[in-house]
Amino acid sequence: MTDRRLVILRHAKSGWPEGVSDIERPLAERGERDAPAAGRWLAENLGTIDMALCSPATRARETWTLAAGELAATPDTRYDDRIYDASPGDLLAVVQDIDDDVETAVLIGHNPGLSQLVTALAGEPHELKTSGIVVLTWSGDWTDAGSVPVTLTETTKPRG
């Protein structure tokens, strides 16, 4: 049985510019400082990341670009429309679709779906703040997510 590690990263603080649609909202200045800090935490605490699954929203893409810039090697990154404005069930489907050869994956997205997914998988309430990171682990396949015991092993909120 393979150990799986799912890293949940909520996008960094975003701006609310007038006349910009929700999906196109950029990071705020604080978000531009915090996203690299999140990347440094990932680099210092996780080792190899095999894949990143990111919302297509501008603020999520910018968060991942800045965070990934702090990693020794940028993992294969996929932008998945299912992650934007996703329910916990939608996010679980994304996780269950991860390739079998991936051991560690990062999921970059939005609340309330991310917090609800962590709560559902870990079995305890958890609220992700902007730039918040949660690491979940379990033994089994990605398709087992949601049906096997999951351990919340780390939670942090890096600041730049």
Structure, described:
- By secondary structure, the chain is an alpha/beta fold.
- The protein has helices at residues 29-46, 58-68, 88-96, 113-122, and strands at residues 3-10, 51-54, 76-79, 104-109, 133-139, 151-156.
- It has a 6-stranded mixed sheet with strand order 3-2-4-1-5-6.
- α2 links the parallel β2 and β3.
- α1 (29-46) crosses α2 (58-68) and α3 packs across α4.
- The protein is globular and about 50 Å long.
Short description:
With 160 residues, this protein is of the alpha/beta class. It has four helices and six strands; from the N terminus they run E-H-E-H-E-H-E-H-E-E.
Keywords summarizing the entry:
globular, Rossmann fold, 160 residues, 30% helix, 22% strand, six-stranded mixed beta sheet, alpha/beta, single chain
Write the layout of secondary structure elements.
Elements: E1 3-10, H1 29-46, E2 51-54, H2 58-68, E3 76-79, H3 88-96, E4 104-109, H4 113-122, E5 133-139, E6 151-156
Parallel strand pairs: 1-4, 2-3, 2-4
Antiparallel strand pairs: 1-5, 5-6
Q: Treating each run of at least 4 consecutive H or I residues as one helix, how many helices?
A: 4
Radius of gyration of CA atoms, rounded to a whole number:
14 Å
**Which percent band covers the strand fraction?**
15-25%
* Unreliable runs: none
Q: What's the CATH H-level homologous superfamily?
A: Phosphoglycerate mutase-like
Strand order of the largest sheet: 3-2-4-1-5-6
Number of strands: 6
CATH fold assignment:
Rossmann fold
Shape: globular
Total of domains: 1
**Integer average pLDDT:** 96
Task: Report the order of strands and helices.
Answer: EHEHEHEHEE
What's the architecture, going by CATH? Answer: 3-Layer(aba) Sandwich
**Measured distance between first and last alpha carbons:** 38 Å
